[in-house]
Amino acid sequence: MTVRAFEIEGLLDKAPEGIEVLSLDCFDTLIWRNTHAPTDIFADIEFLGGGVEPRMWAESHARKRAHLRTGAREVGLTDIYREMMGNADDAEIEAAIGRELAIEADHAFAFAPTVALMREAKRRGLKLIIVSDMYLTEPQLRAHIAGAAGEDVLALVDHVFVSNAHGEGKRDGLFPIVLKTLGVAADKILHVGDNRAADYDAAHEHGLHAVHLLQFDSDAASRLRMEAATALMLDPQSGITRPVAQPHRAQIAMRSSDDPAYMLGHDIVGPGLETFAHWLKNELDEASAKAGRPVRPLFVMRDGYLPYKVFEALYPEMDAKTVEISRFVALRASIKDEKFLDHYLEEWTERLPVRSLARQLMLFTHEYAKFDKGGDDYEAHKLHRQAFVKWIRKDRDIQRKIFTRRDAFLKKIIAHLAAAGVEQGDAIMLVDIGYNGTVQNLLTPMLAEAMNVSVSGRYIFLREKRQSGLDKRGMIDVRNFDYRTLHALSRSIVVLEQLCNIEQGSTIDFDADGTPVREKIDAKAASNASRGKVQAAALDFVAAAGNSRVRAPRADDLASRCRAAAASFARLFFLPSAGEVGVFESFDFDYNMGSAASVTLVDKGRGKHGLRRRGLTFYNDQLPQFMSAELQAQGLPVSLANFTASRFKLDLRSTDFEVGGLQVPVILAGATQQGVMDFTAWPTAEGYYHLRVPVGPQRPVVAVQLGQVCEWVQVEEFGFMPLEDMWDGKSASTIAAKATADAMEQMSPGLFRATPTGVLIAAPPEGSEPMVLSLVFRPVVARKATAQLRAVA
Fold it and tell me: Scanning 246, 257, 650, 697, which has the fewest C-beta atoms within 10 Å of its C-beta?
């Protein structure tokens, strides 16, 4: 029988008739650790270069030595530390053993459902035994159980069998020793443990009723491994001098739903936001003590919605409030004079259309209508935008209107804050996801002047490009990670924003009493059932937090939780699972700048086609919000390459991947001469190759002799791009070539069957600008007679 962790408490209701003894494995069944792997705790051993590997090597060597000398299969801590510490004397060995036992105790906790099972077993009159494969002695193991679970739990145990004491493990001879000692028939014992071989197979072979405890479903187990790997990527000391902490493991084991959106909320968002809430409470307490008065937490909507709900659930006494001061609103309120107007125009002119710029400046339609033209013509839009900015900067009358309207608008913001309980002279803390704290930057001087209010800011992520000098902190910021790491994380922060926000339009104005006036949200982004599931699951996690553990281990401190949250979020950002990508495919989002237009968060086709056309480095010049989700279907090697390059800002270029190319003959036919040249097509992804043929001002006709290398060929791209765009990686600038296929029969869109003389011909492009003909193709069936000759070593 196999049971999940959330089922173990009621296990005896399913037990066979006549059971007299409940037998439990100890580690990862009754006593769990606060780390990803058991060996992670060895990082706390003070050993030059890190204690994990030396401790593991010492145990392995000690076991080999014991087996060679006496045939023993088990060793104790004394054997291990004598191997590890060379010529150390007995006192030094004993001191080292004491330190390891203390480290084990720091990270240990009892799994509450297993303890509940033990109490139920005693209520039913069953004997209770512990059977453990472990290098601890029986007294050491008993002391460890008492420390992690309590003396009352240890008192429930009738016998403890540990492999170190008997020289035999469960897979060898420990179960026969158990049966002989108890004097009970094997079929009267129900044994439960997490190790399939030692606890299920071995117990079953000796006639015991066996139950395999499956701690995690396959998705959770894989995700936790990836979180541990991510922790190592983020923090150079993780797994060396710092254990890879995963304080949420036990609660994840209690999840019963396998819905992808629920798993995302319960296993990732919930733990991360719970940690943020605890961190924020600590920050508020410190800030209040420093200020000598309460600091009021104000969660900034829309993205602060779920963090607010989590914080409110954990700390209702803090009287947290929400405010709807978007970046759009804060920018509008900041434009109080010509200096601020110039600053606004410099930053946003190239990023927003005329209509959005004008609305932010509180201009009426008739005032800017003559500039809001151009239709779909990008160049026309650009010219009108430039004319609009020139008009704003020259027209003093329109500037006076902007500043007057801004003053009236600021009064409405003050009314909105007053509705949230903010009074003259208060101290407030704006709370948001991050990452720059733009709203805080803008509000701080305004509120200091208008209300004598001091403003601080606390964020999940904080990465300031410019040092503001303001009171800002992030749970994940420069105090625990370098700028490269923070920049890599900030590129996908929209992922967390979309999971945390409330489904309503961005605030663009207020009524006189401070009531928000919201933008009508795009229909595609207005409703998302998946978001609701994620948020409900996150709150479920928070509501049940602590129920899976009898008591928190001493190592479960705020610093380790923050590192675990960072690893969990970063894993989602860079190594999402297929199920998680499926959840995000339904998400659309707007930019929170007074425009209702939304964009799709995940475009899987963009990643697939980008890899086919440009290879692994195509993302160097792409800035989609969730690139990792678009690459996920291409496999872990591609995802890891993206993660590694982003995390460490590696200077990887397309030429670094050019290996195993294919020589393709190309005919260049000009007005006065023609010739054949071989060009190298380099592999990209999924069996595709990228061929580049330079085309100068002479503009020859280009005929690629694909029939020489392929019997069947699939064409992904055939077009021209400016030479400078090729170096910049601007694949979107490729213009389809006017193509003709000769001696190549098109069998389906993009798929051709070619004779040996088959060519794909591109008519020359207009103009004289240096161009590159870009051909991306996949040899579905290579022409075997020439393939070997044309392969490039």
Answer: 697
